[in-house]
């Protein structure tokens, strides 16, 4: 039995943060048959090649922060994997109001659902089923009584930025932001810079306004997805083409399935929905697989592994609808392995520590730099040489000009 529910729209004051999904409730609150739920996930499992990816990584040891409307920690497919973190919306709802937590639970299940029953074969299996979730509540769903208060009160203006910083400080390896808004803020930009500096991978939804063109070249930009350093995710349809609702612009890095996506809801419910929110959660799951296998891999390299390994690439290798293509978990792990191999540290010499004597053959600590750093150092040297050459050329030109002027002055005299 299917019952339909209206799209969820979640707004934040001025910045208009939205988490929009069209959802359908499957089999009410009662237990659904295993083939209703897990069978409904088979298209995603196949597209992302999750069965192959799980041979290498299932996300163990990774903490994914879900910045959303809250996660139900008692859902049978998430039980034991959810840590309930700070609620930055506290005070918006009347005292004693229980949060809806539909959108957040839905996203968390796609990232780290572990199923239930014998061998976990029933219910939702997430992309990284052995990862843990940190629930950080930064939005309210529109049916919550504090919705208007949350969208108008000054104290809730920078909840997303505060949520990012909190997640980083709580040890998150990946931050999923299945939310979007049209305006960028300085606070969010600074929070994202802070997260990246701590090695945290940020993944965000490109937005669901793809039908609303700004001009012939792109649909609206969405934040935090459009900030530099954030993995911006578009949604694909059943044919793995850009879904009509998915924003298309040059911020989109990769895409993932975003139509007819099965997920969990609070109270052991199951839902089917569509949106860039779901696509984002799937990509966050793949990022968690990579971070579990290569915990020291930097956010830019994780993003590169996702992009370089994408399948269903558009003509020319990139377009604004699906970015570099559809994320593939198995190939992303393989690409991450190649990147890790090429960035292995190498001992390149010693740097004298002023506090340590050199006598007796004891020098300072050994400086270790990666091959990427060596490459950057080489490029810097080349650039410096080029700059020096350019300055020398300018000096010669200046001298020649002065000589010509002097010659003219002599002739005039």
From TrEMBL:
Molecular function in Gene Ontology: serine-type endopeptidase activity
Segments crossing the lipid bilayer: 378-401
Example GO BP: proteolysis
Record-annotated Peptidase S8/S53 domain positions: 59-325
Keywords linked to the UniProt accession: Hydrolase, Membrane, Protease, Serine protease, Signal, Transmembrane, Transmembrane helix
Family assignment from sequence similarity: Belongs to the peptidase S8 family.
The protein, known as: Type VII secretion-associated serine protease mycosin
Species in which this protein is naturally found: Nonomuraea solani
